[in-house]
Amino acid sequence: MASNRTGTAQWQRIRTYTKRQAQADGLTNCPACGVQLDYDKGRTPNSAEVDHIVPHAQGGTDAVDNLTILCRRCNQSKGPRSAPKISTILAAKPLKTSSRWA
């Protein structure tokens, strides 16, 4: 049995589905900082990670409509706070076109 919620088979299926759907929809850059996402390699600053829009600790669910993709750096720096609205991010900071890890 998994020791935490994100280690369960159900979460792994939802996570995989969300990442595949984001790729199919053409999401190539982090919506928060604009860095090019790496869907193949994990645990690097630009790795694509599934993030809860409304955190689980604040009553958010694992439903696909409560999930988004962020780069690992943005996901970890956000912590348990709610994700800012994408329109707010884009108004404050235009998307970068090059990777900061190139």
From TrEMBL:
One of its GO terms (molecular function) is zinc ion binding. The keyword Hydrolase applies. Pfam families: HNH. Gene3D superfamilies: 1.10.30.50. Transmembrane segments: none annotated. InterPro entries: HNH, HNH_nuc. Residues 13-76 form the HNH nuclease domain. It comes from the Bacteria. The keyword Hydrolase applies. Keywords: Endonuclease, Hydrolase, Nuclease. This is HNH endonuclease. It comes from Galactobacter caseinivorans.
